[in-house]
Amino acid sequence: MGHRIGESAGRRRFPAIGTTSFGVATANGLPDAEGMTRDETLALARRLGTLNTLVTVDIEAGFSTDPGEVADLVAQLAEWGVVGINIEDGRGDHLADPEQQSALVKAVRDRVPGIFINARADNYWLGIDQSVPAVLDRARHYTDAGADGIFVPRLAEPGEIAAVTEAVPLPINVLYVKELGLRRLGELGVHRVSTGSLLFRTAMRTAVDLALDVRRT
After folding, report:
1. Residues with Cβ within 8 Å of residue 147, at least 6 apart in sequence
2. What pLDDT shows up at residue 174?
3. Mean pLDDT, to the nearest integer, of 197-215?
4. Pairing state between β 54-58 and 90-91
5. Which residues are 151's β-sheet partners?
6. What pTM was computed for the model?
């Protein structure tokens, strides 16, 4: 429903729509980032293929450690019209080995050459080895493996954002930083800004607030 609303708001304003794994998981009563929403993610992606807009899908960590299985999943998404994916290297309370994560990225690139691979470096997201050099090391691995973009969620300090965008040859994606705004993020070299689960969380919070207000009256 939310994606239909986003589409109807105007493709000139929103030329592409991306799913959030948190929203998919929560809407189905499942935990996020634990690889438990494969079927739900595929079902949503298939429905979104009917939208008259570009669609990218958050596939968490690929729902498998087997590169071939991850590539097959992405190939199925591409058949339904999905043009891009997010694939994360966070694994609960730790980060994936960059070599193993690169194998997933490379398998997808070889199997589905036309899809946009947005590879996440979750150092800042998980607060593990949270530094620009550590992010750049992972970005180098994923770039060499064939990624099209690098997503660094919770990278928010202007100097660090600029350091990453200057050093990485691929488009850099960050989560929306209200204090900076889109214009400033663009000036810092950011090419893509995601809202992550913000829209979903805001919608749920608004619904609860309204229900409480109705109950009070």
Report:
1. 105, 109, 117, 118, 119, 170
2. 98
3. 92
4. unpaired
5. 120, 173
6. 0.91
